[in-house]
């Protein structure tokens, strides 16, 4: 999670543990905040804010895994980061590289991310990059916006879900032109405001914050998963809302939040992404606070999602299997 209302020191907070050769510690936990996992070719690929490896604060590193538990840099055994996007390498941004998302359209891979509090789209012909831009620029430089998620509907239209600032962080959506890399301004619409008690707990007071969107579609219903509260709040958590349209109106679900410290047992649990595992299971990857006294660097977690059909409501309900939270580790043994 990142927010305009933080002071400048927090905007460039420590995003990873000090570099440590893997030979000195065979396995260690992952420290990717705002994580996402992409699945392809029988493997998992994880990236996020900061992360494990020297240089990860100046772009985005990636790790790969066969089982979600043990991760390593692709094609490398020296413990150094494999960078899929690097500051200054034909890509927008000088600081604040946050919240990446990987997606593929036809033969092109795309990476959408935040830098300098702007949403950016870069591309590559290979999954592992490097991701670059033909024209180095943000998607919409008219005002600050962060935490991008690109959703493709069944009719082929794309939508950019993201955060804009107005005395807080709010989720917005606009139709997105993948070819031009631009939103259609006339379609821009705010998703919703802060309305639920769990979205604003007194543990850490702040302006309203709703961020970290992920959208999926099931049986003609749209499900928007998002995080609320300030990321430094121990009650940072994940809930979801349902709609008949990618623009809303969104109905927040009563069983939210579905990921919270009271459920998964760790503070600051939120801002991640949904993905379907190689086993067909739905998972959510997210971050938590370092421990009960310290927020950063944030640890990476993965939890199975339980999806159940509610015939009366005409939509799915979601919860998590808190007994099977995965604490992924990084290793030099491949």
In short:
This protein is mostly beta strands. 2% of the residues lie in helices and 44% in strands.
Low-confidence stretches: 1-25
Into which percent range does the helicity of residues fall?
under 10%
State the major sheet.
5 strands, antiparallel
Number of domains: 1
CATH level-four homologous superfamily name: Glycosyl hydrolase domain, family 43
Distance from N terminus to C terminus (CA atoms, Å) equals 31 Å
CATH class annotation: Mainly Beta
Mean pLDDT: 91
Pfam family, one: Glyco_hydro_43
GO molecular function: hydrolase activity
Family: Belongs to the glycosyl hydrolase 43 family.
Protein name: Glycoside hydrolase family 43 protein
Which structural traits does this protein have?
mainly beta; 334 residues; carbohydrate metabolism; five-stranded antiparallel beta sheet; glycosidase; four-stranded antiparallel beta sheet; disordered N terminus; signal; 23 strands
